[in-house]
């Protein structure tokens, strides 16, 4: 009876087509943290009290503390910023999907746990532009992935500083676009992706206006008086490739340069390296979020391409919407944080898309009752073909796990296999590392080739074992993943 029910569920899942267009909410933060330690609370930064919850959080930081000893420690363990965001979002059902760090640049991707099986083909890369391309204090870090079949890329940049380097900043951005590539046949470069978000401390300034005029316009909230001299807006009029990027209106205060722990702009003139007093920095919108939807091109019908390319190239019928639409909901800065001379910038977006797939690659579930008193069996089905590997594994996680390596224990899908049929494969999980206390858990199938979780079980209860009542409370141990 149970096997027949599983076959029926599998058959139903494989025949259900994609739903109509749905809206997913994206929350992006960019913040130059000026080597400061994280604040105690980032709830308002993530707008966690909003009546609309987000599906994806993308957090781009610049100038994270990268002193040599600290940087080495952060590479060995999670840095303090990642720890804070995981501790904040984990209990709310979000998981850190991936991250990329290049010296002071850090990019974090979090997703709602239910979305994990539909975030695939994750890749990260970086490009240095500091010291003629040899130093990573400036440059860009990026992450790309497929989200319900749509190719997305997020690029966090820290570009050259100072007023007179607007053209150099554009050159650096173009260099990053040229240098970064991915091992994906259909999206080898950043601009091949259907949707690209470009953000960070882009360091563009406001030209010509004097300090008095700037502060007068800002204090009266007449930000539009400054737009025609904003370097990025000026450059977008000149450079064709920048015109493909969109940005929301700058209806918030310039985010640089503030006195720390203050809402006042740079009242104290800095000291130069020779000890002389330097000039005060003019306020500027250095911290920005832009996006680009891949333009459609007209290709002769006889020319064939990939499925992704065909969807992008196909001309639209009258009244037909794009398969992916971006709507900017909010674009603002948060004045609540004073640890840096920059204020963080927040962008929230609605991604209206048609899901190309609603079936995970793998269905995984726990067999029978689980406790540390006896060994357990995990069953899984392959629902859609994918490049599996002998390095694939299934992890046992607490229900509020923070990232893919936050498992309690795991089992190799090949080495620990105990039975196999055309429909169901079963693997063994030792009781030695199963929690002895009552714990709500899930099982996740991790694909080494896609670098992602491709299947999550329904939540289930691991029951307290006799060991816990006999020997008292004992913490479970986490098995280190080593050589097979």
Write a brief caption for the model.
By secondary structure, the chain is α+β, with helices and mostly antiparallel strands.
Secondary structure layout plus pairing:
Elements lengths: L1 H14 L6 E11 L23 E7 L5 H9 L3 H10 L4 E9 L2 E8 L6 E12 L4 E13 L2 E9 L7 H14 L15 E7 L9 H9 L11 H8 L48 E7 L13 H7 L10 E10 L11 E9 L8 E5 L3 E2 L4 E7 L10 E6 L10 E4 L4 E4 L4 E5 L9 E9 L4 E5 L3 E4 L2 H6 L13
Parallel strand pairs: 1-2, 7-8, 13-21
Antiparallel strand pairs: 1-11, 2-4, 3-4, 5-6, 6-7, 8-9, 10-11, 12-14, 14-18, 15-16, 15-19, 17-18, 19-20, 19-21
Identify the overall geometry. elongated
The fraction of residues in strands falls at 25-35%
- The residue-averaged pLDDT reads 86
Query: Main sheet: which strands, in order across?
Result: 3-4-2-1-11-10
- Ends apart, CA distance between termini: 37 Å
Gyration radius (Cα, Å) is: 25 Å
SSE-based structural type: alpha+beta
Number of strands: 21
Number of helices: 8
Order of helices and strands: HEEHHEEEEEHEHHEHEEEEEEEEEEEEH
Low-confidence stretches: 1-18, 306-321, 474-480
The amount of helix comes to 10-25%
């Amino acid at each position: 009876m149970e096997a027949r029910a599983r076959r029926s569920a599998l058959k139903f899942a494989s025949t259900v087509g994609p739903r109509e267009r749905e809206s997913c909410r994206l929350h992006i933060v960019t913040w130059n943290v000026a080597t400061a330690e994280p604040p105690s609370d980032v709830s308002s930064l993530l707008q966690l009290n909003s009546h609309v919850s987000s599906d994806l959080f993308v957090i781009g930081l610049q100038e994270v503390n990268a002193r040599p000893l600290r940087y080495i420690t952060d590479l060995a363990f999670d840095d303090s910023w990642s720890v804070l965001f995981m501790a904040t979002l984990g209990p709310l059902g979000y998981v850190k999907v991936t991250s990329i760090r290049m010296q002071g640049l850090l990019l974090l991707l979090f997703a709602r746990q239910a979305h994990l099986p539909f975030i695939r083909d994750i890749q990260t890369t970086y490009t240095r532009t500091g010291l003629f391309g040899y130093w990573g204090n400036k440059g860009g870090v990026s992450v790309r992935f497929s989200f319900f079949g749509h190719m997305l890329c997020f690029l966090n940049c820290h570009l050259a500083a100072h007023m007179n380097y607007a053209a150099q900043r554009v050159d650096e951005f173009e260099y990053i676009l040229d240098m970064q590539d991915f091992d994906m046949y259909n999206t080898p470069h950043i601009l091949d992706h259907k949707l690209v978000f470009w953000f960070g401390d882009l360091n563009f300034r406001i030209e010509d206006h004097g300090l008095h005029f700037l502060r007068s316009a800002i204090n009266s909230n007449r930000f539009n008086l400054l737009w025609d001299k904003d370097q990025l807006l000026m450059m977008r009029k000149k450079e064709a490739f920048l015109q493909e990027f969109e940005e929301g209106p700058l209806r918030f205060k310039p985010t640089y340069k503030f006195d720390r722990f203050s809402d006042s702009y740079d009242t104290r003139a800095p000291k130069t390296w020779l000890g002389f007093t330097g000039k005060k920095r003019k306020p500027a919108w250095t911290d920005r979020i832009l996006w680009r939807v891949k333009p459609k091109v007209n290709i002769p019908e006889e020319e064939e391409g990939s499925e992704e390319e065909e969807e992008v190239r196909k001309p639209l019928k009258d009244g037909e919407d794009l398969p992916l639409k971006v709507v900017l909901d909010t674009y603002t800065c948060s004045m609540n944080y004073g640890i840096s001379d920059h204020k963080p910038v927040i962008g929230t977006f609605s991604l209206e898309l048609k899901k190309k797939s609603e079936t995970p690659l793998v269905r995984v579930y726990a067999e029978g009752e689980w406790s540390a008193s006896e060994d357990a069996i995990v069953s899984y089905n392959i629902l859609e073909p994918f490049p599996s590997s002998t390095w694939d594994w299934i992890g046992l996680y607490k229900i509020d796990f923070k990232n893919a390596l936050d498992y309690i224990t795991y089992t190799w899908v090949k080495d620990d296999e105990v039975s196999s049929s055309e429909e169901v494969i079963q693997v063994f999980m030792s009781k030695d590392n199963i929690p002895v206390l009552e714990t709500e858990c899930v099982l996740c199938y991790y694909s080494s080739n896609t670098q992602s979780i491709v299947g999550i079980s329904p939540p289930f209860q691991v029951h307290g074992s006799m060991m816990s009542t006999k020997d008292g409370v004992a913490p479970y141990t986490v098995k280190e993943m080593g050589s097979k």
